[in-house]
Amino acid sequence: MKRRIGIALAAPLAALLALTACSDTGGTSLSEQWAESSDKGYVSGDGSSLSVPVAERTEPVEYSGETETGETFGSADTLGSVTVVNFWYAGCAPCRAEAPDLVAAYDEFSDDGVRFVGVNTRDQVAQAAQFSKEFAVEYPSIMDNAGGRAVQRAFAGQVPLNAVPTTLVLDREGRVAHRVLGQLAGESQLRTLITETLAESEGGSAGADAGAADSDAASADAAEQ
Fold first, then answer.
1. How do strand 176-181 and strand 166-170 relate by DSSP bridges?
2. Which class for 188: exposed (0-12), middle (13-18), buried (19 or more C-beta within 10 A)?
3. Which candidate among 14, 98, 196, 209 keeps its CA 20 to 30 Å from the CA of 178?
4. What single DSSP character describes residue 5?
5. pTM to 2 decimals?
6. Within 10 A of 155 (CB to CB), how many other CB atoms are there?
7. d(Cα 135, Cα 173) in Å, to the nearest integer?
8. Is 155 helix (H, G, I), strand (E, B) or coil?
């Protein structure tokens, strides 16, 4: 098993931990930028991270769409796995800048069962495929551009997706556990969020194993008596 770096992140639902700025918003609110994004090209994010405590997470997000290779992919394919969802498109400068960090995290965690999926918000298939080739992206991307945006709408009901890029980490139940608004600060930031989410379920599994062991011990004691 690969060595993971665990860093505790105690962040309540309302707390935003400012990390890095991917661009200057110029005094314009993110909601206004989102409304104007079709003209501007992308919405500026500040790189802030939001972590949602387990007890405060919403219902699992259900989504599905067609990938750049023409296959159907969605939440049913990742249920039971910690999943990284990255919203992007090829002409977005911050998306290009963070692509190597996503690929590095994929290479590190895919053997541990962590799933990755991109959600392309603007491109045609040829553009998305060229991006994947350029950055050696092996995980699928759902083509969710204008005319439907079903995946974006599914997640917008749970977490305000008001910047591209946006990266989400979903827990094993498909609930949003972490959100990075704007460009990732680096591979280490994403590694931390994935590691923390993996540790939640591993801790629960360890607790269940311990409980089973205690139960077996109690049964053995009762038999001896």
1. antiparallel
2. middle
3. 209
4. -
5. 0.73
6. 21
7. 29
8. helix
